[in-house]
Amino acid sequence: MKSGVDLQRAAMAEICSTRDDWSFHVTSDPLTRFLRDRRLRTALRMLRVRGLLDPARQSVLIVCGGVGGEGVFLSRYGFKDITVSDLSEEALAVCRGLEPTLRTMSLNAENMAGIPDSSYDLVLVQDGLHHLPRPVLGFTEMLRVARTAVIVIEPHDGLVGRAIGTEWERHGDVVNYVFRWNRSILNQATRSYLLCKRAIVLPHRMWDHNVVVGKLARRFPERWRLTVAKTVYRVLRPVNRAGNMMVAVVVKPDGDTTRGSGL
Known about the structure:
Blueprint: H1 4-18, H2 30-48, E1 59-63, H3 69-77, E2 81-86, H4 89-98, E3 103-106, E4 120-126, H5 135-145, E5 146-155, H6 159-164, E6 168-171, E7 174-177, H7 183-194, E8 200-206, H8 210-217, H9 222-236, E9 245-251
């Protein structure tokens, strides 16, 4: 029987072999970029307000990076040292085609044994941990190899997610359980691994229904589409605490590169 990791690798290989248009990752269309990038921009803003964002100097490892959509965004944002990792060699080949300046690495997110502790300033995952058989293990590996902070963008565990969210994703023979995060899980996983009170855990909930919002916005003339999409999310902002998505930043203690210090 194939492991969950093997199944995900096979699924990505199939997607890459059957799809020939990845232009939405590099498009300059304002609506598409807004819908794709708003969660990433929120995460970077959380770092910026704490004085922890320096794109020209910081190295970034993207975990479960697929064909490199997040890498393209970070490159356009100003980051110079970006590594996109994934299990799928087919996905990484697509990534190199989309943005040749990106480094790529074949990597099992649950076992980054080949990467030393504190190797990258920032380690980021977007919609990737919930594909892993052991999502918390993937998260703690991110904590280990990060020097400054970890960014986690994943489905949030709440009433809305349980009521209307997908619990099981099926792609042919591949079955994936959608693991959802919340403040408690994130905080406990961080504290239990780092054994450090001084780590800063910053979970932020928000609404993310980009497919639905995109379909709605495209019913309007092109010049109004971005405004419509921004208005929808602006209306939802007061009830973000009930949102279906978690954008979280975990900041490691300054100078604490050894697990267990700083009690």
